[in-house]
Design brief:
By secondary structure, the protein is an alpha/beta fold. Helices cover 37% and strands 16% of the residues. The strands form 2 sheets. It has a 5-stranded parallel β-sheet.
C-alpha cells in the first residue's frame, strides 16, 4: 500500500499559535487537491501560498469553489473568511508598486488570521518626501512590515524614524546587480538600524507570521 505523500500538522496552531500553511510551488495539482480534500473532510481552514493560476484552474470545480483565491499574490484561503477583530495595528509599507505582489501575500496572510492592517505603498526613499508624509501614520502602528527591492533602503530609514519592531522583506525587484533580490537581502542584513529583523526574499507570508508572533508576545498578561 502506497502511503500518502503528505502529513498534515493538525496540532501546529495549539503549539505555535499559527496554522500550517500549504506551500504549493513544487507540489503537483493532484497532491494539492488531495490535501484540500483532506482539510475539507476535517472541516479545517487553511492558507495556501504560491498557488499559481494555472494550478488553481486545474483544481476540480467542486473543490475550487471552496477557495477564496487571489491570483496576484498566488494565495488561496480554504474555509471561512474572518472579519478583522481589531483596529489595524500592523502597517505594510512598500517602496514601490513593483513590490505589491509580495505586499499582497503578507496582507492575505493577515486577512487569513482576521488581523487588521494598513497599506502604505510607493513610499521608497528615492522620493523621501512620500515617506515623510506618512510617517505619523506609521508611528501609530505596533509592528511595521517594510517591503523593498533594489537597494532596499526603506527599512533602514524607517529604523531611524520609528520605535516599533520592523520586519524587512527584500524583494526580487531590480536590475542587473540587484541579483533577483540578493542585493536587497544583503543590504537589509547589513543595515545600521539596530533591531531590524529580516525575512527571506519575496517572503511576504513569513513577514506576516513574524508580525503575528510579535503581537502574540506583546499581548497584555502574556508571559515575559
Amino acid at each position: 500500500m502506497v502511503s500518502k505523500s503528505f502529513q498534515l500538522d493538525a496540532d501546529r496552531s495549539s503549539r505555535t499559535g499559527l496554522d500550517e500553511a500549504i506551500f504549493c510551488a513544487h507540489k503537483t495539482t493532484n497532491d494539492i487537491v488531495k490535501i484540500m480534500q483532506s482539510l475539507l473532510e476535517r472541516k479545517t481552514r487553511a492558507l495556501f501560498t504560491r498557488l499559481s493560476q494555472v494550478k488553481f484552474e486545474q483544481i476540480p470545480i467542486n473543490v475550487r469553489t471552496e477557495l477564496n483565491y487571489d491570483p496576484f499574490s498566488s494565495t488561496a484561503i480554504l474555509g471561512t473568511m474572518l472579519e478583522p477583530t481589531n483596529e489595524p495595528n500592523i502597517a505594510i509599507v512598500s517602496a514601490g508598486t513593483s513590490d505589491l505582489n509580495v505586499v499582497t501575500e503578507a496582507a492575505r496572510t493577515l486577512i487569513y488570521y482576521g488581523k487588521g492592517y494598513v497599506d502604505i505603498n510607493d513610499v521608497g526613499v528615492a522620493g523621501l518626501w512620500r515617506l515623510l508624509q506618512r510617517i505619523d501614520d506609521i508611528k501609530k502602528m505596533d509592528v511595521v512590515i517594510a517591503v523593498a527591492g533594489m537597494d532596499a533602503a526603506l527599512p533602514t530609514v524607517l529604523g531611524g524614524l520609528i520605535p516599533c519592531p520592523i520586519i524587512g522583506v527584500p524583494t526580487s525587484v531590480g536590475y542587473g546587480v540587484a541579483d533577483s533580490g540578493s542585493t536587497a537581502l544583503n543590504s537589509m542584513l547589513a543595515s545600521c538600524s539596530s533591531g531590524l529583523s529580516v525575512v527571506n526574499i519575496d517572503n511576504g507570508y513569513g513577514a506576516a507570521c513574524a508580525a503575528l508572533r510579535i503581537l502574540q508576545i506583546a499581548k497584555p498578561g502574556s508571559d515575559s
